[in-house]
Amino acid sequence: MPVTDVITDPENLTLTIHADFAAPVERVWAAYSDPRQLERFWGPPGWPATFTAFDHTVGGLAQYRLTGPRGEKSSGRWEFTRIEAPTLFEVLDSFVDDAGQPMEGFPAMRMTLEFSPTAEGTRMVGTSHFDSAEALEQVVAMGVIEGTKMAMSQLDTVLQDLRAYAQGKGTRLELLDDTHVRITRLVEGPRELVWRAHNEPELIRQWMLGPDGWEMTECVAAVAVGDTYRNSWAPVGDTPGQAFGFEGEALIIDAPRRAVTTERMQGTDGPTTLNDLNLYEEDGATLVTVLIEYPDLATRDMILATGMVDGMEASFRRLEAAVLV
Q1: Domain count across the chain
Q2: Are residues 297 and 250 in the same domain?
Q3: How confident is the model at residue 7 (pLDDT cuts 50, 70, 90)?
Q4: Is 197 in a helix, a strand, or coil?
Q5: What count of Cα atoms within 13 Å lies in the side-chain half-sphere of residue 71?
Q6: Which sign, positive or negative, has the C-alpha torsion 171, 49, 145, 110?
Q7: pLDDT of amino acid 267
Q8: pLDDT tens per residue across span 106-149
Q9: Residues 150 and 239 in one domain
Q10: Please, is 209 exposed, middle or buried when counting C-beta atoms within 10 Å of its C-beta (0-12, 13-18, 19+)?
Q11: In 3D, which of 241, 301, 305, 295 has the Cα closest to residue 269?
């Protein structure tokens, strides 16, 4: 976890975050000064950022929105007041409405990010200055500390070459908390084709089969928000197991970057999970990230115990062999 300390100082009206990264200052600076890289870590898992403007000059503005898994939105704006590359920048950070204007009742703050070399890489010190103790308390109560920790936990991935981070490591599972897991898999192929393979029935049928000995008997894709999908599988021949299927609804479709769907076993009332698929391409390879939200710990552990991750790895191998050739 990059964040090593968080200091709330009501007397000086500041919130300070310390973080350490195993990368040189110039590399960390590049991540913070490129909107495409910022989009990969500025929002916490499940709330990715989209920067709609980014003028990285003194007096310039950066505008972004965070989109939650159910379509919730929160928007912000930075006004750059000081830039000393590659060691420091300062912004006026504001919550804004859909028109990009500061929102009444939400505190603005002056935020300074400083980057300095260490023996292991880079230390970042981020200090937010508030106008009042009440404004500081309001931001803390909104969960900014927890959100920042979760967001910055994604930065290590951004700072590495994508293949160095994930190539040859198969399907990986991270337990984020009692109800959230993150699954990642590097796929050797362009994002556009990986997106199609997740959304076009004729391609889905070629790879989304799980372990050998199973076939997909039904595939109805959701192509727009509000659409429902249905996927069903059955064992072939003497393969042990019973036919089953999943169904759900598309909540977000942002091709070819992100799709959020609900998922439940067919013919049941639940439990329902929330599956947040994100695709990121670098140098011809695509990192597939699936953030899954479970209703409770027991459901999480029950579903993981079915061998879900192993089945996903078998499917991803088939994807690379059958579709991305």
Answers
A1: 2
A2: yes
A3: very high
A4: helix
A5: 8
A6: positive
A7: 86
A8: 888 999 999 999 999 999 999 999 999 999 999 999 898 998 99
A9: no
A10: buried
A11: 295
Has residue 23 got a pLDDT over 70? yes
Q: Longest Cα pair distance anywhere in the chain, in angstroms? A: 72
User: What is the three-class DSSP state of 89?
Assistant: strand
Cα(252)–Cα(275) distance, integer angstroms: 10
For residues 19-38, average pLDDT: 96
Structure tokens, 186: 């590097």
Residues in the chain: 325
Q: What is the pLDDT of residue 38?
A: 96
- Cβ-contact 223, 204 below 8 angstroms: no
Pair 207, 229 in one domain: yes
Tokens linked to 147: 């959100």
* Cα radius of gyration rounded to whole Å, the chain: 22
**275 and 132 share one domain:** no
Whether residue 218 contacts residue 232, with contact meaning beta carbons closer than 8 Å, is answered with yes
| 3 state SS of 287 | strand
Structure tokens, 318: 């088939």
Sheet holding 244-254, edge to edge: 172-175, 180-187, 285-293, 273-282, 258-265, 244-254, 228-235, 214-220
Q: How confident is the model at residue 210 (pLDDT cuts 50, 70, 90)?
A: confident
Can you give the residue range of the structural domain that contains 96? 3-160
Place of tokens 């920048």: 89
C-alpha 144/C-alpha 160 separation (Å) is 26
**CATH number for position 275:** 3.30.530.20
Tally of CB atoms within 10 A around 1: 10
> Which of 184, 312, 197, 315 lies closest to 256 in space, CA to CA?
197
1, pLDDT greater than 80: no
